[in-house]
Design goal:
globular, signal, disordered N terminus, 2 domains, 170 residues, Ferritin
Amino acid sequence: MNRREVGLSLLGGAVAMGASTAALAQAAREPMCAAEREHATNTLKIGGLALRSSQLAQTKASGAKVKEFAGFEVAEQTTIAQILRESSGMNPPPPDAEERAAMARLTAANGSAFDAAYVAAQIDGHQKLLAVQERYLSAGRQPHMRHVAMLARGQIKEHLQLLEDLRGNA
């Protein structure tokens, strides 16, 4: 590729990024309907627990593949939370009693027992996150939020498969 092609490629990317930024800014100005609020709230809530438990697993897990998955999950949940915060203006809700209890159980576990508990909790959380995305996609109408839900749904399905593989190998 010559310099001119590189320049045109970069220009095209900048234009595409500008369009994406403009679309995101427009979506943030649109009033949120009940379906969008519910989707953002539930995704941030369930994703918040997935994030916190994965941050713990990055240091506490004994299996290399479990630690690797935890790293993927931290990156994914950090990104999804940022997108939802920027597009909805919402922050993740604080952990409730059930989430605090789940984290306490994980914190108390060690070794392979931790790995098994973490994987089981991630499977449960991902199933809940998948249901949130499916529910929104059946009722939500805001294009930007639908696109977020579509992307999240694919990633969640992939993670569920990885988690099932981890559970089978534990």
